[in-house]
Task: structure prediction
Amino acid sequence: MAALRTALPRLAPRLARHATVARAALPQLAARTYSNTKSPQPMRDAMTGEIIQLPDIDPSLLKIENTNTPKTRPPSSKLIFGRTFTDHMLAIPWSSATGWGTPVIKPYGPLELDPSSTVFHYAFTLFEGMKAYCQEDGTVRLFRPDMNMKRMNRSASRLALPTFDGDALEELIKRLVVLDSEWIPKEKGYSLYIRPTLIGTQRGLGVGPSSDALLFVICSPVGPYYATGFKPVSLLATTKYVRAWQGGTGSYKLGVNYAPGVVPQADAAKQGYGQNLWLAGEDDTLTEVGTMNLFVAFKLPDGSTELATPPLDDVILPGVTRDSVLELVKSHAAGNAIPGLPTNIKLSERKVVMAELVEAEKNGTLLEVFGTGTAAIVSAVDKIGYKGRDIQIPTGPTGLGSIAKALLDRIQGIQTGEIEHEWSVIANEVKKA
Ligand SMILES: Cc1ncc(COP(=O)(O)O)c(C=O)c1O
Result:
């Protein structure tokens, strides 16, 4: 006892130091592996006990299994789009008997699936593409995630796969992205590409609604699309192949829409073009560029500029970037000026046919053509191969026309948080010093 009394003054500062370290570690410990003991419960009729609603996705049930073998992050300059994945993934099972199961964030790794799973035979697969950005102070931002959740639910309905509470999945994606936020490169133009995916996992052959499904989310750090200056893309106006048709699935983000585009793309490449310009109908209506939405700027007789894009229908994917461009140009016209955009700009969601482009090139009224999408944001087009000749399109000295550049700058500014906007959603709350 006496020995302890004499030792105490010496030990006290050490004990206090240990307590401080333990306290500081608490938040990290809370975020480490833990098993939630709650499980999803169906909603039952109070009188009869009958199940009236199966469980939806419930973020409060999240289980986190941290990786014990964190990977080494490659230097940002070495990143190739979609090749590097972060340490963790999110997975949520679903079955028609029990509804959405327990969401789990676990180490990134292979899935184990029965070879007879519907995904392998009948293309029960759909996906989303969205991005997260990390600011210098550690603030992690998502860009319009609600739009992706809505589109994913729309795709799920089209494949008779289960729909879900979009806010709940958004919340879980935030948890995943914040857990792996060390993987988000902070350099300008870099981001984390997020790929939510939903597949049918029912065992057994036979075409019908899948009784089981798996929703998973993986993340990949990516570099700027234009690492070395803007490179305009050349297009081959494609009539031999059709990407989408009325009554088809082109307006949904389904895996089945993409694999058949690979051979046409290789054909275009063989002929010296970067991408396909997908046409539809007898009159060669313009629809999309590769896997991007399409915009064309024309000079009008009164000197103003028309920015035209095909209207949303069965052949156009409702792009988040497309919608953002439309909203920004509308708000510019309403007085929220965007530097670099013509003051007198008219927005049209209308049918555009190839004959118009040929005519506009001849008249000198074809100002710009560009594609929009999450990966590149905005991508300029410098020529379109059509009926054996190239339509030349101005791209300006930087390789990106002034309208495309103004929109790219504004969207990037919002995505990174440089420009405050409701579209940019903070995934974590970081205390400012
Ligand atoms: C066919 C197709 N069109 C357009 C887009 C652009 O959509 P978003 O702007 O939402 O990325 C994509 C990419 O997601 C696509 O795959």
Remarks:
- The longest helix spans residues 2-31.
- The CA atoms of residues 177 and 262 lie 30 Å apart.
- The helical segments are 2-31, 118-122, 145-158, 166-179, 262-270, 320-333, 354-363, 402-416.
- The chain has two domains: 32-222, 233-416.
